[in-house]
Amino acid sequence: xxxxxxxxxxxxxxxxxxxxxxxxxxxxxxKPGGSVLDIACGGGRHARHLLGLxxxxxxxxxxxxxxxxxxxxxxxxxxxxxxxxxxxxTGRGFDAVVVVNYLHRPLIxxxxxxxxxxxxxxxxxxxxxxxxxxxxxNPDHLLKSGELLDAAxxxxxxxxxxxxxxESGPLPGVIQRICAIKAEEPVAVEPT
Length: 192
Ligand SMILES: C[S@@+](CC[C@H](N)C(=O)[O-])C[C@H]1O[C@@H](n2cnc3c(N)ncnc32)[C@H](O)[C@@H]1O
Hints:
Layout: H1 21-26, E1 35-39, H2 45-52, E2 56-61, E3 75-78, E4 94-100, H3 108-113, E5 115-126, H4 147-152, E6 157-166, E7 173-181
Parallel strand pairs: 1-2, 1-4, 2-3, 4-5
Antiparallel strand pairs: 5-7, 6-7
Bound molecules: S-adenosylmethionine (SAM).
C-alpha cells in the first residue's frame, strides 16, 4: 500500500511512505487485534502498516487530510496536540502507542500512562546532535540523551533503546528510539 508522491511541493514527511523499520520490527509485540494510537500520524504510513496487521487503529494529527482514505477502517481524530491538557486521552487506554518524528514533551508521560497493562510503546524521533545534520534543530523538538529511557523507567520494561546517527533511510540524522512494554515479566522479543 502506498501514498507515494514525488511532487517536491508535498511536505517532506508525506513523501515518505514506507513505515519505519523500528515500528515494523516491534509491532508484532502488540496484542493481536489490539488498539493502537498513532500520534501525529502524518500520511499514516504507520497506521497503514498496523491496519495491515489487523490492529484497531486510532490516528491523530492536526491535519488529517492525508489519511482521509482510512476513514472506514480507522478512528481519525483531527486536533492540535499542543493545545492544553491532553483531554483526548481521558478515559482511554491503548494496547500500543506509536510516535514517529514528533515530540511535544508534555505529552510523553500522559501517553505512557494511556498504555494498558501488557501494552507497548514504540517511539522514534530526532534527538540532540541532529542539529548538525538537518531539521529539526529546535531543542524543543529534539530528545535529550536518555530522555525516553528516563520516561519509561519505573513505568515500563524497556525492550530496546538506541540513540545515535542513522544514515540509512529517508531522513538521515540523530535519532532516539525505544520499544517498551507495560509488563513485569520478560516478553519474547525474537521475530516471529
Ligand atoms: C514529521 S511528521 C511525522 C508524521 C508521521 N508520524 C510519520 O512518521 O510519517 C509530523 C506530524 O506531526 C503533526 N503535528 C505537528 N504539530 C502538531 C500539533 N500541534 N498537533 C497535531 N499534530 C501535529 C504534523 O501535522 C505532521 O503530520
